[in-house]
Design a protein that fits this description.
The structure holds 2 protein chains of 2 kinds. Chain A is built from 1 helix and 11 strands. By secondary structure, chain A is mainly beta. The radius of gyration of chain A is 22 Å and the shape is globular. By secondary structure, chain B is mostly beta strands. Chain B starts with a helix and ends with a strand. The chains are: A mainly beta, B mainly beta.
Chain lengths: 152, 198
């Protein structure tokens, strides 16, 4: 009986450990990373300003971004940043400018989709470096239908 | 002693059940953001503090400093209840018709620690929509293969009589450490904001 009790207790302890870990399963990696020095958010819009991840050759994609240093909590302005740009494979970097959009200041940049741009997903990234040498980046959530896509 | 063994056995079975439920992967045939309804009351969630709501003009978006930073976009659900599905689901949009189902996708960090927002450090998270009960934000996996990632989502069906025009929704996070993250589209151009069409 003692053995049975010990075995049951051990199994219970293991399960308790498993249950605790279950609340933060190792596979549950938050997007885009468990931790960030500089948080970056980038949304895309059409030239008319509507949110969209779909574009066509010859059209313009507007990148609308903001970033903040997670240590100082400060949202970055043009005074805080060494560089902030969008990198598109095979294309020159799209420099983001701190500018007024509506009544707010955000970082914006425009990419005109070239006629030679392959159709399909555009796996862009945004990269920022602060004057205090802290880095941040943005990548799109990996749900293909919601990623920036050049359509025919 | 027998009772003790019995109790341990019951606890063991209950624990195994809970563990398997927690570890259960989503059904492979589920579509983003899931087959189940996402709408639910954020029960017990107190109202968000009034402070963060309307940012002043000429300030950086989303504010000069922030305790919690949020990325937010809106996609269309593949199965709207009151409208014909669009040719392509899960695309980012700012305009939705009555009967369609917008789904907010959100990830973020808590400043100070720089840690991502997960159920481990979030006390509650919901979307406040004028005229509707709060819509709870759900944490879950989306995407396929190596791109599969965890973030927060919430969707709701736009009623046939819901007011037209810009819908000033508000995303509210409260962390376990007592910090609030509020996201609104205030100050952005109207065409970029969530808008309800006939």
């Amino acid at each position: 009986m003692k053995k049975l009790l010990t075995a049951s207790a051990a199994a219970l302890a293991l399960l308790a450990l498993g249950a605790t870990a279950g609340a933060q399963t190792p596979g549950e990696i938050p997007f885009p990373a468990p931790k960030a020095d500089v948080f970056v958010a980038v949304n895309t819009a059409t030239a008319a300003g509507e949110a969209s991840n779909l574009t066509t050759r010859g059209s313009s994609v507007i990148f609308i971004a903001f970033a903040a240093d997670t240590k100082t909590k400060k949202v970055l302005t043009d005074k805080d940043v060494k560089y902030f740009y969008v990198a598109i494979p095979g294309q020159p970097n799209v420099k983001l400018a701190y500018s007024k959009l509506g009544s707010r200041y955000v970082w914006t940049g425009t990419w005109t989709v070239p006629a030679s741009q392959p159709l399909g997903i555009v796996p862009f990234k945004a990269l920022v470096k602060t004057n205090t040498k802290r880095y941040g980046s943005f990548v799109q959530i990996g749900v293909t239908n919601a990623m920036l896509t050049v359509t025919a | 002693m027998r009772s003790l063994v019995f109790l341990l056995g019951v606890a063991l079975v209950a624990g195994a059940f809970a563990a398997s439920a927690a570890a259960q992967p989503p059904a492979p045939d589920k579509h983003f953001p899931g087959n189940d309804a996402y709408v639910g009351l954020a029960t017990g969630a107190p109202a968000a503090p009034a402070a963060a709501q309307t940012p002043a003009a000429d300030k950086p978006f989303p504010g000069e400093v922030a305790d919690v930073l949020l990325y937010v976009d809106i996609v269309n659900s593949p199965r709207p209840k009151g409208a014909a599905p669009r040719p392509k689901a899960c695309t980012q949009l700012s305009s939705f018709k009555r009967g369609e189902r917008p789904v907010l996708r959100i990830f973020g960090v808590e400043t100070g620690t720089g840690e991502a927002l997960t159920p481990e450090n979030v006390k509650y998270a919901y979307v406040k929509i004028p005229g509707l009960p709060n819509v709870k934000l759900n944490w879950g996996p989306h995407g396929a293969g190596t791109a599969r990632a965890y973030f927060w989502t919430a969707g709701w069906d736009i009623a046939a009589d819901y007011p037209l025009g810009v819908l000033p929704f508000k995303v509210v996070f409260k962390t376990e450490s007592g910090k609030f993250g509020i996201f609104t589209q205030d100050g952005l151009p109207p065409e970029n904001r969530l808008t309800i069409l006939p």
